[in-house]
UniProtKB/TrEMBL annotation:
Residues 266-342 form the Multidrug resistance protein MdtA-like beta-barrel domain. The chain crosses the membrane at residues 12-33. This is HlyD family efflux transporter periplasmic adaptor subunit. It comes from Kribbella albertanoniae. Residues 404-434 have a biased composition (Gly residues). GO terms for cellular component: cell envelope. It holds the Pfam family Beta-barrel_RND.
Length: 445
């Protein structure tokens, strides 16, 4: 079938239009996806000047505010709780009464012990009198034996037939020794019984705030439910020890009540093993609280635990920090972020850490003219690295690894404010401040 000429002309115009549309789409795609990359391909890397200032290396972690002194006292004498004399949130002095158990059983044991003590004392008195009699009899026998008269000889023979005076004295001395030992034991039993009566009143081993009461009136409390000594919230802090025999202190939460000194809070934080080897007691630190993010608190590393903790295969070491001043609104359990200064180099040359490329033990930088130069580095902070040799102040180096800042987790580079080329001010550190960069003649960075 042959189409008319006018219909063929219509199809030709339609085909031409379709071709034109496809061509326009292709040209647009070319400029969008290919030509758009040409400016960046022609752009140069940003460059900065080698600067002089301070470089600080540090490690960081997060932890919580905890009391430096805590205690969880428990009754030493078992019994039924009859009184609770404090409430949660109450501030108590050391030695203040917290609770009481029924003293009837302890008082009964005291009465028995006191009666045994009296009986033991009477036994000592009787044994002492028996010894005196035996000594007198021995002396009389010795005198009779020394007499030349027949009467004296007869008396001596009669005493020999009944009991030897020396044996009688020896037996009396042994009886007195046993009686004295029984008396000493009876005295000790009385002391223990009195302590048991006193222990029916639980007393605070430290001054602080009652943070929890783990018992109730009518419940059975006693030393069988806990053992041990006072614990603290962090390594290096002072443990609370009971000052009298009226209570024992056990792990927090296992005693009858929990007490914490809320006026002496410290920061407890865990550091991974790679960072833990860099910190030691006495180093200065900065602490910020999530509740008060704008306030920087001065702290000192008090101690690092010698034993690790492994969680999901990650090894960490607990560190305790003492605060120079405690904020008025600080509360136990608040989240705290701590940064420990591990090294500092003052008045040294440094560059952004993103300008340094490390291959094995070799460190190089790329100069603004494109040449490579080997350098010796010193302290490496989070954003800036100390240059010991290989560069001079004012030299221009390229940033090869991206934007300034954050190449070392948990580290902070710090330095003095310096002059950028052309007179612009820039921060010489501070963990990621942006430095001004040099532009080429075409205006590209």
């Amino acid at each position: 079938m042959v189409l008319p000429r006018h219909k063929l002309r219509g199809l030709s115009l339609l085909n031409v239009s379709l071709v034109a549309v496809v061509a326009a789409i292709a040209v647009t795609a070319y400029f969008l996806f290919f030509r758009a990359d040409e400016p960046s391909a022609a752009a140069t890397r940003p460059s900065v000047a080698v600067t002089r200032g301070d470089v600080v290396a540090s490690v960081s972690s997060s932890g919580t505010l905890a009391s430096s002194q805590t205690a969880s006292p428990q009754f030493e004498t078992s019994g039924t709780v009859t009184q609770i004399l404090v409430k949660v949130g109450q501030v108590v002095a050391k030695g203040a009464a917290i609770a009481k158990v029924d003293p009837a059983a302890a008082e009964r044991q005291l009465r028995i012990a006191e009666q045994n003590q009296i009986a033991a004392a009477n036994s000592v008195t009787a044994a002492d009198e028996s010894l005196d009699d035996a000594v007198d009899a021995r002396e009389a026998a010795e005198e009779a034996s020394a007499s030349p008269t027949p009467t004296g000889q007869a008396q001596a023979q009669g005493q020999t037939q009944t009991q030897n005076p020396e044996v009688a004295v020896s037996n009396a001395e042994a009886s007195l020794a046993r009686a004295k030992a029984d008396k000493e034991q009876a005295d000790q039993d009385v002391v223990a019984a009195k302590s048991a009566v006193a222990a029916t009143t639980l007393k605070a081993p430290i001054a602080g705030t009652i943070t929890a009461i783990n018992g109730s009136v009518g419940s059975v409390a006693g030393s069988s439910s806990s053992t041990g000594s006072g614990t603290s919230s962090g390594s290096g802090s002072t443990s609370a020890q009971g000052s009298t025999s009226t209570s024992t202190t056990s792990a927090a939460g296992t005693g009858f009540a929990d007490i914490s000194d809320l006026k002496a809070l410290q920061v407890s934080a865990a550091f991974p093993e790679a960072d833990a080897i860099k910190i030691k007691a006495g180093q200065s630190a900065t602490v910020t609280l999530n509740a008060e993010p704008g306030a920087n608190l001065t702290a000192t590393l008090a101690s690092v635990s010698p034993t690790p903790t492994t969680t999901n295969g990650v090894v960490s070491y607990s560190a305790t920090f003492s605060l120079a001043k405690l904020p008025a609104n600080a509360r136990m359990g608040q989240t705290a972020n701590v940064t420990v200064q591990t090294a500092k180099a003052a008045n040294v040359l440094y560059v952004p850490s993103t300008a340094v490329v490390t291959t094995g033990t070799t460190n190089t930088v790329t100069m603004a003219d494109g040449t490579s130069r080997e350098v010796e580095i010193g302290i490496k902070g989070g954003s800036f690295t100390q240059i010991k040799t290989g560069l001079n102040e004012g030299d221009q180096v390229e940033l090869l690894q991206g934007a300034i800042g954050g190449t070392g987790a948990g580290q902070t580079g710090q330095g003095r404010t310096g002059q950028a080329p052309g007179g612009g001010q820039f921060p010489a550190g501070g963990g990621g401040g942006q430095l001004p960069v040099q532009r080429n003649a075409g205006g590209n960075r």
